[in-house]
Fold:
Amino acid sequence: FIVSARKYRPATFSSVVGQKHITSTLKNAIERGQLAHAYLFCGPRGVGKTTCARIFAKAINCLHPEGAEACNTCESCRSFNDGRSLNIHELDAASNNSVEDIRTLIEQVRIIPQVGRYSVFIIDEVHMLSAAAFNAFLKTLEEPPAHAIFILATTEKHKIIPTILSRCQIYDFNRIRVEDSVEYLKYIASQEGISADEESLNLIAQKADGGDLIFAHKFKNFELELEWKISKGGNSGILYLAQEVEAEKNGQMKLQPIYISSPEYQVLDNENHPDAKLGVDGNRKSASLYDMIP
Structure:
């Protein structure tokens, strides 16, 4: 069993939503063999920076590429899909931002890849590195070994020192359009056999604001709500979430809780509804969506 947020994460350039200018450029670079040694992916949260970094890392190490896309059958692709690839390293700079963390990374850079051509180092939230860590990283970023490629991702490009910026190819990710968001939500709903009306999907996409923190929160919550409804045999989780989103007024995050009864899973007026009382096993028969969705 795989939760929807992971199940429907794009795995190819063609499946990335709303970033065609990025994916086209990266695919052209792969096909022409013109790869830079350092990339900087910038943009709001939830627009696909880390996802594109992983797709790119997988594609350049594929032993039998299909154009610019990975084949998913070679040893390099299989090891990546299984989470056991030794060629692709990820570092969360938000929690690993010291000089010692960078020194460990530099030691890894020296190791030649055993399968595939490149060792790819993805550093997420790179702006969180300390000033000393940036300085320690600078020399390696400027003159890395031929087999090393760095992909830095950040939501706050202005916090990165100019000497780092000048050594990277910079890619600016756009906010995702409402139309693209709606189409992908439709795809998820259809794949899971969930009924969804156009108005609800548009409402969720509009409140998403193109992929910033609210979008990432709402989009992932939407998928988790689908997961919960599927596990309970229901088919209208989208409507419930849309009602929550609609409760936002003037940008305030004060949402009205929605109570759902068990086993019918119907929307209740409030927690004092007769069907919301304790069951025979001592557990509440209803819960707010806030209890069900992190």
In short: The two ends are 18 Å apart (CA to CA). Residues 133 and 255 are 41 Å apart (CA to CA).
